[in-house]
Backbone:
């Protein structure tokens, strides 16, 4: 049985075909084989949420998925949130304007999770925001500023869920 | 790369998967959502020689609510259960418990059958399956068998699964009319493993409790079905004053019966205390939902 396998997948709209070891995580594949280092790796066992990406339209921990499992998948990472002309995604813009970032390590995972939340529930209560983001740890403990900013941004700009 | 080497198979049919599992014997592991297995691989707590990824087997992705029974296939994710209106309507205990499983991104990938197969003492699904008198459907290349939930769970992270076998689906009978259910748990942080929890169903008729089920989460070896406590409630009138006394009696029995362990998260005596408090909360909620006091 081969310990390497050929996979083909779409990341941020671009198709890649690569040969990968079967034990390689999707997170390591994205960072080291595609050089998309915006996806961060914290705990590598599913607790911190920094490596959260969008896998076939749903948020997923890229550290808990094998690269071979993503054969045929469509993935969006933090690098894929900007429009081609460089315009930030509305949620990214809201983070930016409301200083909802401290060191930035958790931010890629926070953004992917927030966008999924707003797609399903365009006007979440503070409790729903806290529940949805409970799996994304911020070691700067910037949560309060972050929740408040997000809430404000949602109320101010209904097109956030675009 | 953190995991040890393994042979990776991603079959497209159940028959193919069972053949690979049979050949692998005790060295084989099924990979579904991977939310428990992959961390175990990364820590090298698990070092299977063969991994059978079942994510491409469409026939296992079946969530079906029949008039008498809910079927949850091996690829059904927690998020699928949560979004299903039939589950919320007919099996509210399962819905309520699933909402408390981990975090959204974990629920998007992790499966109900995977949680049941792993049988972590702090997990929600094993207790729910017992409380709803559910059945585990097991397959191997030699054939299929069914086990009642209580016979399936055999101890700390242990089940009746033999090498070469896998859980293919869970069946939950529809609770009868007049049943109120509740799942409550306590965790230090939202989405963390629960320190303790309680799952209950109360079937009421004319103010009398016809049938009661109570399972405690997070105590010792795995789900703890509180049979003595259930017996206290069965055939008992549960009006406002009666219920208060009955529930206090039940909580006392639960506190005396559970055998939690001390660990870094909480002492045994604190867990025992929580078991009593959560029992009363669950019973009060279930009774109110059944239309009682």
Residues:
């Amino acid at each position: 049985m081969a310990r390497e396998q050929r996979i083909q997948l779409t990341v941020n709209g671009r198709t890649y075909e690569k040969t990968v070891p079967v034990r390689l995580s999707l997170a390591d594949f994205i960072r080291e084989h595609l050089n998309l280092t915006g996806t961060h790796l914290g705990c590598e066992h599913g607790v911190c949420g920094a490596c959260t990406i969008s896998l076939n339209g749903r948020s997923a921990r890229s550290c808990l998925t094998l690269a071979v499992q993503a054969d045929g998948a469509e993935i969006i990472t933090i690098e894929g949130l900007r429009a081609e002309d460089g315009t930030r995604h509305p949620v990214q813009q809201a983070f930016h304007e409301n200083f909802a970032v401290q060191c930035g390590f958790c931010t890629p995972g926070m953004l992917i999770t927030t966008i999924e939340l707003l797609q399903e529930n365009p006007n979440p209560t503070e409790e729903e925001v806290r529940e949805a983001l409970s799996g994304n740890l911020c070691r700067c403990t910037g949560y309060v500023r972050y929740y408040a900013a997000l809430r404000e941004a949602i109320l101010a700009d209904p097109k956030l869920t675009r | 790369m953190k995991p040890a080497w393994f042979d990776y198979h991603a079959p497209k049919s159940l028959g193919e998967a069972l053949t690979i599992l049979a050949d692998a014997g005790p060295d084989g592991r099924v990979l579904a959502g991977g939310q428990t297995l992959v961390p175990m691989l990364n820590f090298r707590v698990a070092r299977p020689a063969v991994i059978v990824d079942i994510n491409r087997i469409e026939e296992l992705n079946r969530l079906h609510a029949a008039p008498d029974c809910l079927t949850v296939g091996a690829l059904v994710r927690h998020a699928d259960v949560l979004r299903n209106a039939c589950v919320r309507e007919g099996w509210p205990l399962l819905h309520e418990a699933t909402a408390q499983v981990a975090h959204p991104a974990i629920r998007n990938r992790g499966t109900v059958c995977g949680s049941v197969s792993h049988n972590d003492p702090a997990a929600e699904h094993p207790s729910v399956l017992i409380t709803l008198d559910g059945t585990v459907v097991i397959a191997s290349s030699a054939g299929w068998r069914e086990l009642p939930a209580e016979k399936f769970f055999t101890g700390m992270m242990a089940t009746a699964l033999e090498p070469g076998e896998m859980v293919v689906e869970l069946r939950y009978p529809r609770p009868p009319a007049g049943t109120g259910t509740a799942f409550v748990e306590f965790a230090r942080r939202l989405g963390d493993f629960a320190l303790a929890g309680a799952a209950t169903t109360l079937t009421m008729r004319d103010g009398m409790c016809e049938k009661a089920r109570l399972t405690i989460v997070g105590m010792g070896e795995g789900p703890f079905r509180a049979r003595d406590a259930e017996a206290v409630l069965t055939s008992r009138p549960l009006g406002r004053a009666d219920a208060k006394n009955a529930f206090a009696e039940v909580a006392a029995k639960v506190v005396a019966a559970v055998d939690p362990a001390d660990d870094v998260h909480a002492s045994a005596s604190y867990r025992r205390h929580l078991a009593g408090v959560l029992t009363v909360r669950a019973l009060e909620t279930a009774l109110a939902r059944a239309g009682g006091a």
